[in-house]
Structure formats: C-alpha cells, structure tokens
Description:
By secondary structure, this protein is α/β, with parallel strands linked by helices. The chain folds into two domains: 1-145 and 287-329, Isopropylmalate Dehydrogenase; 148-279, 3-Layer(aba) Sandwich (Isopropylmalate Dehydrogenase). It has twelve helices and twelve strands. Pathway: Cofactor biosynthesis; pyridoxine 5'-phosphate biosynthesis; pyridoxine 5'-phosphate from D-erythrose 4-phosphate: step 4/5. One of its GO terms (cellular component) is cytoplasm.
Amino acid sequence: MTAPQPGVLAVTSGEPAGVGPELCLRLAERDWSLRPVVLGDAGLLAERARLIGVAPRLREYDPALAPERGVLDVLHVPLAAPSQPGALATANAAYVLELLDRALAGCTYGEFAGMVTAPVHKGVICEAGVPFSGHTEYLAAKTGTPLVVMMLVGGGMRVALATTHLPLAAVPAAITQPLLEDTLRILHADLSNRFGVDSPRILVAGLNPHAGEGGHMGREEIDVIAPVLARLREQGMRLTGPLPADTLFVPHTLEQGDAVLAMYHDQGLPVLKHASFGGGVNVTLGLPVIRTSVDHGTALDLAGTGRADAGSLFAAYELAAAMAAACRA
C-alpha cells in the first residue's frame, strides 16, 4: 500500500436531496491545511450553488493543479436520477454508496489522507433494498474491520460509545466483557496514534443509575464492567470507573480524562451535543483509514435554502486534517 498523499482529504457530499452538497460548497470559502476534494455530481453541485447564491468556481479534480481559495475541486460521480432539495429518491441510494466506496478506495490505496462524510439518509437507502444502519457499520464491513467505535468530539469532550444504534432494551445484553475490552483497546490505541495523546486517561460510565448502587440497581457494573477495567489497568491503561453518568459529565470529573466511554447512545451524546451542536464531529475509531463526519442529519427541510450551518462540516474537516498530521508525526 502506498503512503497517503499528505495534502488531500476526500469529502463525500452525501444524500443529494439533503444539505450535504451545499455544505460542501462552503469549503471553498477557506484555506485549509489539507486540500479538500469533494466527491459528488458536478451538475448537482453547480445547480445547488446557483440555488443558494454561492459562487465557488468548480473544477475537475487534478492533483497537478494547486489549490485556490474560491475554487472547489470536484471528483465527479454522476447521479443515478435527477435530485431536488428535500425530495428523497431511492434511485440515488446507489449513488450515495458509490461516493463512500470511491472515497474509501482512495484512502485505502494512498490517494487520500482521510475522508470526511456529509450526512446520508439511512431510511431511503434501506427502502432501496440495501440494508444500511449507518456510515460506521458500512465502512467497517467494507474494510473487514470486526469492531469499530463511534466517538463524538466537541464542546471540549471526546465521548465514545460501547454500543451504538440499538434499542435501549437490547443494550444490557450487548455489553459483554469481550466487547468492552475490545472497545477500550481501540479507543486507547486511536487516542494515542491518531490524536497524539500520550498515556490516555479514559473515564468509563456505568450502565445503571448510580453505577448500580453496589448491585442494588443492577449488577452489570460488578459482573461485567469492573472486571474488564481491573484487567486492563493491570496492563497499564489509565481507566477510571465505572462512574455514575450523572456525575461523570461535570467539569471537575471531565478534566481528569482525555475521553469518556459511555455505555449507550443516549447516555453520552445528549450531553456532548448540548455543549457543541453545530460544531460537533463524529469519528470512527478502529478503521484502517481516517474518517470523520458531521454530527447532524440530512436536514431535508433546510436543503436548498442556504440556511444550513457549515460549522460541523468545518470542524470535521479540521479534525480529520489534525488526525492525518498526528499519523505522520
């Protein structure tokens, strides 16, 4: 495998009926440490630029050309069917997945240093007959990665998840010792290798209220979580927990860690999104490539209005660039 090109990040424009294409157009407004290359239908991007009143110059991506402010490099991937803002079309589900496949291939074979993803619509992809639960799971399957970890970054926090898109009733059974151990190893390794954190400190939440209250409110902390933490501490990891989630997310406790591991989606993410919405970043840990994403959905009601906030995309781009730099250091 060739070394990733140090100056290029791929940006997938996501669901064509959503805000992704217009957010990608905004990348031309800034100078970036790494060059953005937007993957998407060039005609769609040009039409959306006219619709929302922005005027970047679109040009076909050519690595021989120098990046310029006001110019957006586009790697053209054609739509399967015409797209209108806010109007989902199952015919374009394959197009959305092709964007991901092309970006992933470029990262795998050294064309890109990493990938940044605009939002996709899970429902319309599933309705097209392709089982799809999200970017995270899709990229894991495509790369043959047995376990990946979702982490959100923003508001001064890094919050990783032991389980992701599961019904709440399914969470306790899903939290096993092997899962927790593998998740903590991935989190620890990527904090060190891709975020440049020496000897990471990880705060681990309990599952139950008051972290089980000594077994009176559940035994998962005693039977599952604590034994894993003890075993990994013996191997040198700096782990604190299991901690009650309601007192973990306070400034004094958060200052003592470099990241938090929450047990389920809505245990950790509401706190982070309250602190950072519009500027949060979704990071997939454990992949052989760098991947970051916005922390919001397709916002179909805002598509084509020009009112969508590009803050989360900008933050995702900056973080991917920083992670690429940490890998090269």
